[in-house]
Design goal:
7-stranded mixed sheet; 3-stranded antiparallel sheet; 13 helices; 14 strands; 40% helix; 13% strand; binds 4'-deoxy-4'-aminopyridoxal-5'-phosphate
């Protein structure tokens, strides 16, 4: 390990992960020192750990407006998504064996779904070109008996929001027995999020996108929803996820979540201002830029294509100034194009599935904000883009 992180003037890759908040570090230190017991132990040391774990669960539940026994700790959103898909389907093997999902899900959902397809389940992907979730395709899809719908809340590369409430309304009308899962990884702690109001049965959240630690997430499972487990063992987490609980990670996750949820509106306003500043600054710094994000999307994620510019070269250039953004491009080794209706083979070709041509994908960057991001950092990025263009022109 190096003794120092590279210089960092503007970390603008918060959709990938976030710096750990001081409140989360404090909560974790405290739990590691004072609640290191096994929550299942039937003595005072165990009970102390159990109390910290349950307090963390209760705080997360209150952020979501649900009950504590509906929150199951996982190692992150990946595990929660895997369990949501597989655990829900395996508990319903005698049903229709059909899954409806969007074409823009995270790999942890698409690959879980693909796993079910290999086991004989049928799958339909709903198109979401230019951020327009194809509701009529979706309604037609529900005409066939369906076991599970899994559609995310906020798309992680583009910031587009999916019409979760409309999806649930269509489910209620056309296929009331179908379960709805929502991967809310990029929404939790950032935009208002209430599983009950949305009416979903399963919802995924994670710690490290909101200033919590990596390695912990949670799955909300509406009470009464029958699920199979993917992790057999000592029966922790009501038997759904065995393994001695990561008490200190749960404490850090809950502390970060509480901070994010208490300041959600202020932080959202800040993100809106940063997005507006970036987009108006780009009109001057790079008038040719194509903004892939939408007005009605999450302001925390801005995807921009800069035609003629290599995103890798730009990321490298910005890195020399301590400015960090993400490429968010389609994998260049993949197929030249993904025809409409075709599903991606090995790589998450979200940008192409979203209707953005491959060539533009290689010129696309994703800028993502945290509550701590400042306007000055956005200005640094704009200056970096301007200078990069000048140097390479
Ligand atoms: N879903 C979405 C939408 C994500 O953005 C991510 C993180 N890139 C994940 C799932 C996986 O999260 P985790 O790292 O907690 O497993």
């Amino acid at each position: 390990m190096t003794d120092k992180l590279p210089s960092c003037n503007a970390y603008l890759d918060n959709a990938a992960t976030t710096p750990t908040l001081p409140c989360a570090i404090d909560a974790m230190n405290d739990a590691m020192r004072n609640a290191w017991g096994n929550p299942s132990s039937a003595h005072a040391i165990g009970r102390e750990a159990k109390a910290v774990l349950e307090s963390a669960r209760a705080r997360l539940a209150s952020c979501l407006g649900v009950d504590a026994d509906e929150i199951y700790f996982m190692s992150g959103a990946t595990e929660a998504n895997n369990l949501a898909v597989r655990g829900a389907c395996m508990a319903r093997k005698k049903e229709s064996r059909r899954i409806v999902t969007s074409s823009l899900e995270h790999a942890s959902v698409t690959r879980s779904v693909r796993g079910m397809r290999r086991e004989g389940w049928s799958v339909e992907h709903i198109e979401d070109i230019a951020g327009e979730f194809d509701m009529s395709q979706f309604r037609r899809a529900l005409a066939k008996p369906t076991t599970l719908i899994t559609v995310m809340r906020v798309q992680n590369e583009l910031g587009w929001t999916m019409p979760t409430a409309d999806i649930v309304a269509a489910r209620n009308e056309l296929s009331p027995h179908t379960l709805v899962h929502c991967d809310a990884t990029q929404a939790f702690g950032k935009i208002p999020l209430s599983p009950r109001e949305l009416g979903v049965d399963l919802l995924t959240i994670t710690g490290h996108k909101i200033g919590g630690p990596r390695g912990i997430g949670a799955l909300y499972v509406k009470r009464g929803t029958n699920m199979f487990t993917n992790a057999f063992g000592g029966g922790q987490e009501q038997g759904l996820r065995s393994g001695t609980e990561a008490v200190f990670l749960a404490a850090g996750f809950a502390a970060a979540a509480q901070e994010a949820c208490e300041n959600l509106e202020t932080n959202l306003d800040n993100a809106r201002e940063l997005k507006a500043r970036l987009l108006s600054g780009l009109r001057d710094a790079a008038p040719e830029a194509i903004v892939n994000s939408r007005e009605d999307g999450s302001p925390y994620i801005v995807s921009v294509s800069l035609p003629g510019i290599s995103n890798q070269a730009l990321v490298d250039f910005l890195g020399t100034r301590g400015i960090y953004v993400s490429k968010a491009s389609a994998c260049t080794n993949n197929h030249a194009s993904v025809p409409k209706g075709t599903w991606r083979k090995k790589h998450p070709l979200s940008l192409q599935a979203a209707g953005i041509p491959l060539e533009l994908g290689k010129s696309t960057i994703r800028v993502s904000f945290a509550p701590s991001t400042t306007p000055a950092q956005v200005d640094m990025l704009l200056e970096g883009i301007r200078d990069f263009k000048w140097q390479t022109s």
